[in-house]
Amino acid sequence: MPPILTKIVLIAIPLALYFEVMVPLYKGGGTLYVPTKTITGMNRLSSEYDLAINQARDLVTQASALKKQYEEMPQETKDKLNIMIPQASSTPSDPVRVMDEITTVITDAGFSANTISYKEKADLGQGKSGYTIGFSVKGSYAKFKELITALQSSLRIYSIQGISFSAAEPQEGMPQGLVDFRVTLETYYLK
Fold first, then answer.
1. Span(s) in the chain for CATH 3.30.70.60
2. What is the mean pLDDT of residues 171-182?
3. φ, ψ (nearest 5 deg) of residue 185
4. Residue 158 pairs with which residues in a beta bridge?
5. Cβ neighbours of residue 158 closer than 8 Å, sequence gap 6 or more
6. Around Cβ 147, how many Cβ atoms within 10 Å?
7. Number of Cβ atoms within 10 Å of the Cβ of 39
8. In whole angstroms, what is the distance from residue 126 CA to residue 121 CA?
9. Between 20 and 30 A from 136 (CA), which of 8, 123, 143, 160?
10. DSSP-assigned letters across all residues of 32-49
11. pLDDT tens, 1-58?
């Protein structure tokens, strides 16, 4: 073979390999060789994995800091937190106890509860569940505002979902101007 032809072949083979193998590795297309993932795609995926790993490390660091803060809290504060959003395995999430707490708030505000009902809520996600509680009371608007204030200042978290009211039926021996109030609220606990 003439030396010039050998030089052309030796230049043509690397060029062909470059355009048929290396370019498809970077760009993802080719005629002879088509890779399943390109190098740029794998680099992008690698950087996404690195970002996810760094975020996971940050979350672990935050969780450790929160755990340390929780462990440093006085027991009294931990008890208050357990009343606010109790664990499912602890007594404060018991529906009887929740109903008792609502009844206590109602009677402390100067009302007698006409009806109280509850329904356990389906799983709310993120390890939470709760109860929907409904009750009705009869009294003046000023006293009802006191009841709402008492619910707001309670250690347990209550989320008022609805309030409806209507003029109470006049009854003998009862003062005029009473209103029937119907309250629907939710309270939560951790599973």
1. 82-190
2. 77
3. -140, 165
4. 187
5. 151, 152, 185, 186, 187
6. 20
7. 14
8. 14
9. 123
10. S---SS-HHHHHHHHHHH
11. 788 888 888 888 888 888 777 776 666 665 555 556 667 777 888 899 999 999 999 9
